[in-house]
Design brief:
One of its GO terms (molecular function) is monooxygenase activity. Residues 1-21 form the signal peptide. Pfam families: LPMO_10. Keywords: Monooxygenase, Oxidoreductase, Signal. Strands 1, 2, 4, 5, 7 and 8 form a six-stranded mixed beta sheet that branches. The chain is built from two helices and eight strands, in the order H-H-E-E-E-E-E-E-E-E. By secondary structure, it is mainly beta. The protein has helices at residues 2-8, 38-43; strands at residues 61-63, 98-99, 105-110, 118-125, 147-150, 160-165, 172-181, 186-195. The longest helix has 7 residues, at 2-8. The protein has one domain (2-195): Coagulation Factor XIII, Chain A, domain 1 (Distorted Sandwich), CATH 2.70.50.
Amino acid sequence: MRKRFTAAAVGLLVMGGTVVATGSASSHGYTDSPVTSRQKHCANKTVTNCGNIQWEPQSVEGPKGFPSGGPSDGLICAGGNGQFSQLDDPRGGAWPSTKVNSGSSQTFTWRFTARHRTTDFKYYITKQGWNSNQKLTRAALESQPFLTVPYGGKQPPESLSHSGSLPSRSGKHVVLAVWTVHDTPNAFYACSDVQF
């Protein structure tokens, strides 16, 4: 099934401003611009030593149900996929980050390689004072998303935009975007590093 997904998908983008999709039951996605995900940084070679994710940025798929379910702590950015473990490496807090402002409206972009019925999109952010040198855990994240976009099991169009206000923060943080697929047991995960 993983090979089928890989062959079907190249280039799904999560955070920035639009959701894009194409056609079959195998969907994939990751955050793009203006807030760029770690997997996108690997795919466009802004960051090196990324392993397989550089060829499969759209494939960060894991169990849905976050935060009560989903990938284990420390494996969240890779969706629990060991083959993409480079995404969980904090790299000493040195992942490239997008400059953002507290309270500002931020547009998030999803791009799909294949459309899939969708339950919702949720965006979580790290707590003030979290440790950027450690792998991402639930304890480091706010327990509630700062933005939830319900999608009611509909199939998204080729592009979809949604915006929300960022919480008040200072310093470096991680935004975790979770796209919950409606008709499979999985969701797609994307970590994006931001600098307030």
